[in-house]
Design a protein that fits this description.
17 strands, single chain, 398 residues, 5-stranded mixed beta sheet, 29% helix, alpha+beta, Helix Hairpins
Length: 398
């Protein structure tokens, strides 16, 4: 839904100059692909969220103004910007990303697009929930037993990461009932788990994780570590698996998450900011502001707030595109700085969690950590380098 001009896309914040021709467009494409590949390939990118978003907006603006010159396979047209490892496990239904807006004006514009597609104002209200800064996965339960976990991948296929079954709080290996369903959500380190993970890594002589988001991405794909790290899951949706009914006809988004929670799986309603139903987008904006205000104190990192139509019939009427559903939107939030202390594995000396230097060792430097997933300056040694960015997601993604 982003149709800003290049100048508008970049006018409110510092960043690359508006793209003025084909050569600049192609150079920007290369930069975005490289950043996406680093982020989705190994969970580690030298480009922070804000810079990535500005670059992507500039590309979108140029492509909007020059539709006949859009490069085939442009990352702006693909789930996960076309860079996530696709894997070989087919998704039950497509696991899409979310479109983004960055302010109240963008939220109003999204609301107008919803009304155009629906032909009227939504009658079922909107839900507002935190956008967990983690990695999107689909978890499949058969007869109440967790049998497979799959990454989002390219939206159609993902990687089998079932080796992490048993490592994820909120995603039990066995449910109370014999439920068959696919639960979708985000896996992330809580702040407490992140610090514990880095303590374990120090004890094993491994470099500390730069930030929770990068640590989660690496941990989900790791198969040969001599230690296991705890993570946490928050569900944001569910789909029927193999035709087995899970929800009654007419169930809303909040009904679905309530059923998932009743089955024993943690949902975004338990993420600290809660899951709220509002009548209109004015109420949604109030919740966005409230969540932004409490964000630094939440137990897990969030990088935005997700707003959805609550009525699933209205969701189906509006539909989805190739990358994201038209009935949901993510309001992105700026990075928040948080400084935490870990214990040095030698002598118990405190040290600051490092920023983007992957080989940084505890006790040798002192840095501020931008939470979630964005290390920030200032820091003493070594000289500053660009911060890492977050990323990842399902219908709750970048």
């Amino acid at each position: 839904m982003t149709t800003l001009t290049a100048a508008q896309a970049l006018s409110s914040t510092s960043g690359p100059a508006a793209l003025s021709g084909r050569s600049e467009y192609e150079a920007a494409l290369r930069r975005l692909r490289e950043a996406s590949q680093a982020y989705y390939g190994d969970g580690d990118s030298a480009m922070d969220d804000a810079a990535y978003d500005r670059l992507r907006l500039a590309l979108l603006a140029w492509e909007t103004e020059n539709p006949s010159e859009v490069a085939p396979g442009s990352p702006t047209t693909l789930v996960a910007d076309g860079a996530a490892p696709a894997g070989d496990v087919a998704h039950t239904t497509r696991l899409l990303s979310l479109d983004n807006v960055f302010d109240a004006e963008g939220l109003v514009a999204w609301g107008a697009s919803v009304e155009r597609r629906l032909g009227r104002a939504p009658a079922g209200g909107f839900t507002v929930e935190p956008k967990i800064d983690g990695a999107a996965v689909a978890a499949r339960y058969r007869g109440g037993r967790l049998v497979r976990i799959v990454t989002r991948g390219d939206g159609s296929q993902g990687e089998d990461i079932s080796h992490v079954i048993g490592q994820i709080d909120g995603l039990p290996e066995q449910l109370a009932g014999e439920v068959t369903v696919e639960v979708r959500g985000e896996v992330a380190f809580t702040q407490e788990q992140f610090e514990a993970a880095n303590t374990v890594r120090v004890a094993h002589g491994a470099p500390v994780f730069a930030n929770p988001r990068n640590g989660t991405a690496g941990t989900l794909r790791a198969k040969d570590r001599p230690y296991r790290l705890r993570m946490t899951f928050w569900a944001y949706g569910a789909v029927e698996l193999e035709g087995v009914p899970f929800l009654p006809a007419g169930a809303t988004h909040t009904d679905a998450l309530a059923a998932v929670a009743a089955a024993g799986v943690r949902t975004t309603a338990a993420a600290g900011a809660g899951l709220h139903i509002v009548d209109d987008l004015a109420g949604a904006q109030q919740r966005v502001d409230a969540i932004a205000a409490m964000r630094a104190e939440l137990p897990v990192g969030i990088d935005g707030v997700v707003i959805k139509l609550n009525d699933t019939a209205e969701q189906e009427a509006i539909g989805s595109g190739t990358r994201f559903p038209y009935w949901a939107i993510a309001v992105k939030l700026p990075a928040v700085e948080r400084q935490t202390v870990l214990e040095d594995g030698v002598g118990g000396r405190p040290h600051r969690r490092p920023g983007p230097d992957r080989g940084a060792r505890p006790g040798r430097d002192r840095r501020l950590h931008r939470h979630p997933g964005h290390p920030a300056q200032p820091r003493r040694h070594p000289p500053p380098r660009p911060p890492h960015r977050r990323h990842g997601d399902g219908v709750q993604g970048r």
